[in-house]
Every structure is written in C-alpha cells, then in structure tokens.
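Handoff note, outgoing to incoming analyst
You'll be picking up this chain. Sequence as last confirmed:
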Amino acid sequence: MNNMSPPPRDHNKGPAFNPDLVDELATKADEVADAAGEWKDAGKIESNEQAQKANDFLSGARQLFKEIEERRKAQKQPFLDAGREIDAAFNRVKEIVERAANLVKPLVETFLREEEAKEQARKAEEERKAREEAEAAERARKQAEERNDVVGQQEAEERAEAAREAEAEAQKAESTKLDSATGGGKRTALRTRRYVEIANVNQAMLHYRMRPEMTDLLLRLANAEVRSAKGNPIKIPGFDIKEERKL
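Most recent structure output, in case you need it:
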C-alpha cells in the first residue's frame, strides 16, 4: 500500500523570477558592500583624490541600484500586466452584478423603511394605551385607598405593574427583518451607518492636533508646497522652512 501523499499542486513550478539574474546582481552587490566596508574602515577622506574616488564609488553604487530596480521592474512587469488583465475581465462581470443589485436595492430599502414606520406607529399606539392604562390603574388605586379597599388597591397595583411592563415592551426598538422567499437568501434588515461631516475645520484640527497622523499630514502638505516652489522664496504659516546640504 502506498502511503505517500500526492505532491502539492504546482510542486514542479519554477521560481517566478530569473534566479540566475538575481545571483548575478547579488554578486555585484556583494562587491559594492565589500568596497563600502573598506571606505568605512578608512574612517575619513583625507584628500581630493580620495574624495573623487569615493564619488566614483557612490556613482557606481547608484548606477547598480538603478540597474537592479530596472531589472526588478522588467521581471515583474509581465505579472503586473497579467494581473491587470485578470482584474479588468473579472471587474467587468462584477460591475454588471453590482449595477443589477443597485437597481433592486433601493426598492427593498424603501419597503423596509415603510415597514419600520408602520411598526413604530404600532409601538407608539401600544405605548400610548399602556400609559393610559397605567394612569387609570393609579387613579383606581387612589380611589381604593380612599375607601380603605385593600383588595381594590391590590388589583389596581397589579394593573399598573402590567401596564408599565407593556409600556416598556412597546418602547423597545426592533428593526424589521426580511426573510428569504426560497430559504436560499440571508435574512436582511436595515443597518444604521454612522458617519461624519466636517462642520468646523478649525475645531476639527484643534481636536486632533496631538495625533501623529495630523502631524504627518501637515508635513506632507507643507513639503509638497515647498517642492512646488522649486527653490523660490516661500512662507507657510506655522512652519519653519529649513535647508540642508547633502548628496
């Protein structure tokens, strides 16, 4: 009896990229890393000649980095193209289904809203009747108390308690649920979706002023504005514009 499990699907499939190309680039990267270590061990550039050689090293490292990135993109591009083709094909079909559902969805929403309105009206009427019954029971209790009718007081208190329970039950909010006609669909109900709109942008920013996300957003906006100035003088309220010299 053979107890060996079947090989996994695509077990003989090769890597998604060219490993020989990666090995070739990795060898070049190792050479750059070794050279960088030698420069670091030297500790300091002592002459213009050394600086020029270091500059050549940086140029070569940048060029290799650019080559690796270009090769990476070239290796990945067929997969990106294939992914876009797959997305386009499936998304077109999904869009048909979504549009079809969106034709019917408002009809169901309207029906459920109308049913909820009817249920709320029914609950309100039940609540009104229960409240009136509780008030009537309270009056009966007082009348029984005035004539020293112990049995009447007990009955009136029981009526009042039952009325209060009915009123509390009527106040419970319940959403209208829509079942499936065939049993194949899921039970549906309207959901409450909460969302916000900015009413006062200054107050909103003041509220979130200590959040790091707010700081990051402001820095991104300001840096984008500085870059768009392309070196020309610029002032941005609330920001100090700094300059530094670096490669």
